[in-house]
Amino acid sequence: QKFKVIAGYIREAFGVQTEDRITEVPAGETVVTVDFNPPSKSKEIIFEKIQDVVKDQGLEEQIETELVDEGVRISVDGSLLFAPGSALVDSAAGAFLDGVARSMEETGARGVVEGHTDDVPIRNATFPSNWELSGARAGAVVRALLDRRLPPSRLEAAAYADTRPVADNGTPEGRAKNRRGEMLLTPTE
Description:
Layout: H1 2-14, H2 33-36, H3 43-56, E1 63-67, E2 72-77, H4 78-81, H5 94-107, E3 110-116, H6 130-146, E4 155-161, H7 172-178, E5 180-186
Parallel strand pairs: 3-4
Antiparallel strand pairs: 1-2, 2-5, 3-5
Helix pairs in contact: 3-5
């Protein structure tokens, strides 16, 4: 009996309400998260910066940008980046990679560089298969971005060879479209 009386006093002292039933989630009047989370650079800002780079350099015919759930996907015509059968980044891509690096630096974005090939097999001493070629190309673009002083912790390379075509490999145009480099830029948390 004494316990029930004391519990009643404690309930009153701390304002415990057992009678009120909540039927909907209460909505706050102000945004609290702004005070606790620093503003991050959204994928929309990254997208705008990359589009500006593409437009400023007149590369709309060779580079496609797309806003996706994860971030910004950039698809670069392979001929802009590399000579056929080569994994040396062409000097013509230098200004574009400068712009990408600058955009990543300004926004703090992370990037995954993907190498893709068509389905025509390559077999030589340097590249025994399309896997090695696509991996070497992705690695070369990552190296080029690292040379532009991006932190290594924000870059990754991935090789896909001919496993993710975006066009029909039965035509020369389709094969050309499949020979590409892609980058997925994502905002940092």
